[in-house]
Amino acid sequence: MRRIFHIFSTLAVGGPQRRFANLVEGLEGYEHVVAAVDEHYPALDLVKGAQITRHPLNLQKSSGLSFSNFKKVAHALGVVKPDIVCTYNWGTIEAALVLKERSIPHFHFEDGFGPDESITRQKRQRVWLRRFALSGRDTKIIVPSQSLYGLAQKRWGFKEKKIAYISNGIDLARFQPIAHKHDGFTIGTVCALRQEKNLHHLLNVFAMLPHDTKLMIVGDGPERQNLEDYAARLGLTKMGLTERVKFVGHVEDASLFYRQMDVFALTSDTEQMPLGVLEAMASGLPIVATNVGDVLSMVAQENRKFVHGLGDAPALAESLLWLKNNPEARMSIGRDNRERAEQNYSQRSMIKAYQALFDKAAGGRG
């Protein structure tokens, strides 16, 4: 049994962590060891059909690089003895630097950015450090979006053979379109409640809509209290806004909540290939979203007119209102989105691609 060592900055529940859980359950012939820099592991609860071993790194948190952290990562590699190492996003760049000098197949996943970076707003020092840390002979960069693929080439300076694009995939059997039997019109979103998701913007957009609309926010995170306070402070509270907004919190099975939505909304400042959009598409929902990452190309052709520029609250509100008033078109667009998800974004295809990638890398080891 070959061993993959996964190093995350955090295993708080988010898109990369949910994909990790699906891969762990779907890959054949591998055992998995995982470390989280922040020692936060709630996403392991998502894994039901496989055993995962934790390996604490005990890294020091600092604004710069730490020689002590390099030593701890090197020690962990000696203890775990992996056949493959996967590092995830900027928070594991120190591990990537250590792996640059090791003859171990190394896959570095880049899924996007926090509030301090975006595709168009890159920190110069981080760009240079990525170029250096990820230039090792045995390192390959994995991206889930074409926008990140282009960034890795044009801004970070890597050649095509150094980068692999594998789109995210979802369980199409789990997320199914159903006939919506609930009352009223419900807008929903499913995401980690973090700053870059800009759910304050969604609340502002929602405040422009008629009183007979509802908003469901599924997920948890550090921004939850701020969002609840902001919803209460909006000037429409006397008209019942707080009664119309429901903060569901973290749920293990989001598929149940997509069935209560009429439209899925995304107002993030930065995304790449958001799982929430894919799950909503598979659930037969139209998408109203900001034009970030690959969202515009992900959705069906008829849905693309509802994808708008950052900060364009009136356009988002107009799209939501049009979909509210046109239920037949709403259902037709939802069917198109489901068909597109079936054609391009199945979990089975994603796992097959990773299986081939890892098998090829580990073929000469062990």
Largest sheet: 7 strands, parallel
Question: Helix fraction?
Answer: 25-40%
**How large is the share of residues in beta strands?**
15-25%
Numbering strands along the chain, what is their spatial order in the largest sheet? 3-2-1-4-5-6-7
Q: Using the coordinates above, name the CATH class of the largest domain.
A: Alpha Beta
Question: What is the CATH architecture assignment of the largest domain?
Answer: 3-Layer(aba) Sandwich
Q: How confident is the prediction overall: mean pLDDT? A: 92
Tell me the name of the CATH homologous superfamily of the largest domain: Glycogen Phosphorylase B
Quick synopsis:
The protein is α/β, with parallel strands linked by helices and 366 residues long. Helix content is 38%, strand content 17%. The strands form two sheets. Strands 3-2-1-4-5-6-7 form a seven-stranded parallel beta sheet. Strands 10-9-8-11-12-13 form a six-stranded parallel beta sheet, with helices on both faces.
Structure description:
- With 366 residues, the protein is α/β, with parallel strands linked by helices.
- It folds into two domains: 2-169 and 346-362, Rossmann fold; 185-344, 3-Layer(aba) Sandwich (Rossmann fold), CATH 3.40.50.2000.
- The chain is built from 14 helices and 13 strands.
- Strands 3-2-1-4-5-6-7 form a seven-stranded parallel beta sheet. The chain has a six-stranded parallel beta sheet with strand order 10-9-8-11-12-13, with helices on both faces.
- α2 crosses α3 (93-100), α3 (93-100) packs parallel to α4 (124-133) and α10 (275-282) crosses α13 (327-344).
- The model has no long low-confidence stretch (mean pLDDT 92).
